[in-house]
């Protein structure tokens, strides 16, 4: 079989468009379990690899409607696990505002509950305002956050190896519940963490839950090349995406890994219609409903500057210094504005759609053409789909774009394998307490 594309659905329940929730047929509510279960069922019907939840640790009246209030993601995935059988379940958890033991235990539990479908999106938390919610007076700098994250992930992987496979025997005849020689104490003492172990959860079905990482800066790429199984990224230009893909894949050899050990999945924001008329109707619907102040707020957040100080109908200042908080996304948006000669207003409207991710507009065959081009041009191994609103735009993707990809032999017709690692074609890691074979 030829190489197959991977697909995830990036779930923001009120839609990724800043005003997607206002579309008359949209179902709304980030705390609407029935809607979230429906989205998961649609994704599983479409044979998607991944149901993915982002997260943040602050809120405000100017936040994106999907992020103003929402379920804690690992709790939600426990519920989604009960209504799905195959699809991978990914949640975002911060390494800056969590403890390794707690996170390792949470994802080991989720992996057991879902029979091997858990994935952890490792984030360092960009925004300094998060510190105020965690009894912190300061927020670590960009590179320091990645140093913390690297040690944090190492500790979690060590904790997942606390028990060998088959360590819990529960032998009634002998009275032996666990085999003593199959338990390992981590005794980690590092720069940022001291963790004794062992973990009070047996080894996860996947060995280690899947690790996802989304940083595009050099520290982010190095962390991903060393520790990640999937990388989410944001590019709007094919050459830019190819350069990122080559850079990231080229770093794997430095950590003793192969190119196929890491799956790269850029975000894609599709505006879909069954024909050109419906495409335009859906696109115009979004344009007419767009709340410009909200879009400007999102742009200001990602650049680290209040853009209302600039002429909205003029260009973004070429010498604008990008905030340390969300460095790679800010640089991406600045480059996009310069490359496309966009005004601040146009850039804000673009951010209101997809926050810097690639915006695609077209019929199912047009969307499939674009995905195929990027997939076959070494720009992506798959895509994280970001519907403008739910469930309608996502259902159009599953019911029309997916069959088009299947017809082109680019995407599976049935799930193969029991765990998310199997679906992704990734090896189960060996226990780190054993010598490498």
Automatic annotation (TrEMBL):
Protein family membership: Belongs to the NtaA/SnaA/DszA monooxygenase family.
Domain (Luciferase-like) ranges: 21-351
InterPro entries linked: Diverse_substr_monoxygenases, Luciferase-like_dom, Luciferase-like_sf, NTA_MOA
Lineage: Bacteria, Pseudomonadati, Pseudomonadota, Alphaproteobacteria, Acetobacterales
Gene Ontology MF, one: oxidoreductase activity, acting on paired donors, with incorporation or reduction of molecular oxygen
Record's keyword annotation contains Flavoprotein: yes
Transmembrane segments annotated in the record for this chain: none
Keywords assigned by UniProt, alphabetized: Flavoprotein, FMN, Monooxygenase, Oxidoreductase
Keyword Chloroplast: no
Residues the entry annotates as binding FMN: 55, 92, 142, 146, 216-217
Protein name stated in the entry: Monooxygenase
């Amino acid at each position: 079989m030829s190489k197959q594309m991977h697909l995830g659905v990036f779930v923001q329940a009120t839609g990724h468009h800043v005003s997607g929730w206002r579309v008359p047929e949209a179902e709304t509510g980030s705390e609407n379990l029935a809607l979230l279960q429906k989205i998961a069922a649609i994704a599983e019907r479409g044979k998607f690899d991944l149901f993915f939840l982002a997260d943040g640790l602050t809120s405000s009246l100017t936040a994106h409607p999907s992020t103003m209030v929402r379920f804690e993601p690992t709790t939600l995935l426990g519920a989604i696990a009960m209504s799905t059988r195959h699809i991978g379940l990914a949640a975002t958890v911060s390494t800056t505002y969590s403890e390794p033991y707690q996170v390792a235990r949470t994802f080991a539990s989720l992996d057991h509950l879902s029979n091997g479908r858990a994935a952890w999106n490792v984030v360092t938390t960009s925004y300094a305002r998060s510190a105020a919610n965690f009894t912190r007076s300061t927020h670590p700098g960009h590179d320091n956050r990645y140093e913390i994250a690297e040690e944090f992930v190492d500790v979690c992987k060590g904790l997942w190896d606390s028990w060998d496979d088959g360590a819990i025997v529960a032998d009634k005849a002998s009275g032996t519940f666990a085999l003593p020689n199959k338990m390992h104490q981590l005794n980690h003492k590092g720069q940022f963490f001291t963790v004794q172990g062992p973990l009070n959860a047996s080894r996860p079905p996947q060995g280690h839950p899947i690790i996802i990482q989304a940083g595009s800066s050099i520290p982010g790429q190095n962390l991903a090349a060393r520790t990640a199984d999937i990388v989410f990224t944001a590019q709007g230009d094919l050459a830019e995406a190819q350069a990122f893909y080559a850079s990231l894949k080229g770093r794997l050899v430095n950590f003793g890994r192969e190119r196929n050990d890491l799956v790269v999945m850029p975000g894609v924001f599709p505006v879909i219609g069954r024909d050109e008329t419906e495409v335009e109707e859906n696109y115009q619907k979004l344009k007419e409903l767009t709340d410009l102040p909200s879009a400007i707020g999102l742009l200001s957040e990602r650049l680290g500057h209040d853009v209302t100080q600039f002429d909205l109908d003029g260009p973004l200042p070429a010498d604008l210094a990008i905030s340390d908080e969300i460095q790679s996304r800010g640089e991406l948006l600045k480059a996009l504005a310069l490359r496309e000669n966009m005004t601040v207003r146009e850039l804000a409207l673009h951010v209101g759609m997809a926050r810097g991710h690639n915006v695609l507009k077209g019929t199912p065959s047009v969307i499939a053409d674009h995905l195929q081009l990027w997939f076959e041009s070494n720009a992506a191994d798959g895509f994280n789909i970001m519907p403008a609103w739910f469930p309608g735009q996502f259902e159009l993707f599953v019911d029309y774009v997916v069959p088009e990809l299947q017809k082109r032999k680019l995407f599976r017709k049935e799930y193969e394998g029991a765990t998310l690692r199997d679906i992704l074609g990734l090896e189960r890691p060996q226990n780190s307490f054993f010598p490498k074979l």
